[in-house]
Specification:
Elements (H helix, E strand, L loop, with lengths): L18 E6 L2 E10 L3 E6 L8 E12 L3 E18 L5 E9 L2 H12 L4 H4 L3
Antiparallel strand pairs: 1-2, 1-4, 2-3, 3-6, 4-5, 5-6
Length: about 120
């Protein structure tokens, strides 16, 4: 059995594919995250977007609602591209920092991430 990798970040990042829409400079991209934290996301797109480009992010988090079973929680915020890399499989991998996000939206992402962390790590966030 493989041990869980220790996360040293103050805000943990998890590897999850979540539906993501990125809007920048009049272009809209539909993709999925490769990983996510409450501070940003990493994903692949098919068009080059240079670093420091401002983007609008629309993210959908799958959740288990206590009364209604499964549901989806929308998160919308603004971000900035902090890194753009050529992807070996084609397109470009981009790292997005969420620079304009409400506390409520950040909390939704944190709650989603915490369900995948060991209990002792989840209590630190």
């Amino acid at each position: 059995m493989r041990a869980l990798k220790s996360e040293r970040r103050l805000h943990p990042r998890i590897d999850r594919q979540l539906p993501l829409k990125v809007a920048a400079n009049g272009f809209d991209f539909t993709t999925s995250t490769q990983n996510i934290s409450c501070l940003g996301a990493y994903c692949n797109i098919d068009k080059y977007i240079p670093p420091f480009t401002r983007v609008l992010i629309k993210l959908t988090l799958p959740v288990v609602a206590q009364a209604s079973g499964r549901g989806r929680v929308p998160v919308e915020c603004h971000g900035v591209i902090v890194r753009t890399e050529d992807a070996q499989s084609g397109g470009f991998n981009i790292a997005i920092f969420f620079n304009r996000i409400t506390d409520e939206q950040r909390k939704k992402i944190t709650q989603y991430i915490n369900q995948f962390l060991p209990q002792e790590s989840a209590q630190l966030v």
